[in-house]
Amino acid sequence: MGPRLLAKLATIGALLWVVPGHAYAETLLTAYHEAVARDPVLAQARAQLAEDRAGEPLARSALYPHLGAAASVGENRAHVTGIGLPILTDYLSDTYSLTLTQPLFNGQALSAMDIADSQVRQGEAALAAAQQNLIVAVTRAYFGVLQAQALARVARHQHHLLVGLYRQAKAFLAVGTGDVIAVQEARADCDAATASLILAQNAVAVARQQLKQLTHFPVTALWDVGRIQPQLPHPDRMEPWVAMALRNQPLLRQAKADLKTAQAAVRYHERAGWPTLTIQMEAQHGLGELLPGVEVNQMGASINLFFPIYQGGGISAATGQAQAAVSVSQNRLRHVRDDIRLQTETAFLNMQTSVAQMQAASQALTAARISLAGTRKGYQVGTRSFIDVLTVATQYAAAERSYEVALYNQIMARVELKAAVGVLKPRDVLAINALLTNRPHKGSIGAAQHFAKSQASRLERP
């Protein structure tokens, strides 16, 4: 294989690596791009917005000039009597006309334009909400896989550690330095660890399927989180975040636009009883319309006023229905506003809590690591029992799980607070993606596993 062929293969490999259609979602950014390209909800929101925007020129068309042409050609037979000798003749007739109509006043058409404009505002807000929801869903699914994998690593390590301790207890019992209770305790802990490992592995499979459902692409290796510092909300007061949410949340904008649409619909139906005023100009040519061989050419203009007097009660019924729809939209707006306030307050408190949880989990993991090392030494010198070692090993695994959960919860808390406020943008995906690395972060489960495995290997020595 020559150097030129190798260079071509390397180029193709590089393209396959970076082109989203041919690369697996190894980072959050690529997963998001895959989801944007294939998400049906986002595509539906875009199509709905396109439909709403097409309604604006449709509504305006009612106020623009309308030009129409008509033509007809006919074969006729005339039988004329009463004016002398009877006449029986066959002849051709043709008629051509051109009509131009310009509305001068149409109240319903003006209201239809207001409805179309409000529907566009609804569609824009719905699209913004769909984009935010997709960012949250992809981020939650991506870090859900990472968290499930981390917890599976913890379960796998705990299982390995407890299996080693169980074998250690049986070996001690065989040589007469152990006891049956320690073996039974170790066996029970080992069985529980096996069940936990199976559950953790199943959780990884489920999390991968959830991410695949969003990206519609196979999920393989994912970049993990590097070392991060927990962040409090800035500003660290709830009121500015709530005020920002009430200004920016697309769901609230959508509810307000829906109310305006309903109010414009009331005006539209009320104006069905208003008069309409149009000006009409017509040019007409007719041959043989009245008598064979008679040609008529005429032009004219007229102002037409139409005043509906009674429409069978349809106007009042449609107006009442539209007013009821306004009441529905008003109550929906109140509910959305209250819900946004609650979600923002909850997301703010969750982010504050996530910082405290991550700090506490980090300290607890350090303490559990020290406790495991101290218990091991105590067991070697005879001051701690084998049961103590099992207990501390379980506590260490629990501390590892708590740390991993707190780590990913802190990242999701940042995303969910921005989403609750309504300012989550695609550029935030870039910022979160910058936290990822293709190497295990310092203090991660990889380092913890290495430490605990070394402890297990030392405990196995009598």
What keywords describe this structure?
462 residues; alpha+beta; Outer membrane efflux proteins (OEP); four-stranded antiparallel sheet; two-stranded antiparallel ribbon; 6 strands; 67% helix; disordered C terminus
What would you note in describing this structure?
The structure is a single chain. This protein is 67% helix and 13% strand. The protein has helices at residues 3-18, 28-38, 40-60, 107-174, 180-215, 238-248, 250-270, 314-381, 386-421, 426-433, 445-459; strands at 66-80, 87-105, 224-225, 276-287, 295-306, 436-437. The strands form 2 sheets. A 4-stranded antiparallel beta sheet has the order 1-2-4-5, with no helix packed on it. Helix 4 (107-174) runs antiparallel to helix 7 and helix 7 (250-270) runs antiparallel to helix 8.
Radius of gyration: 38 Å
Name the shape in a single word: elongated
Low-confidence stretches: 1-25, 440-462
Q: What is the name of the CATH architecture? A: Up-down Bundle
Structural class: alpha+beta
* Run of helices and strands: HHHEEHHEHHEEHHHEH
State the separation between the terminal residues, measured CA to CA. Answer: 57 Å
Q: Regarding CATH, which class?
A: Mainly Alpha
The tally of domains stands at: 1
Sequence of strands across the biggest β-sheet: 1-2-4-5
Helix content: 55-70%
- Helix count, DSSP H or I runs of 4 or more residues: 11
The proportion of strand residues reads: 5-15%
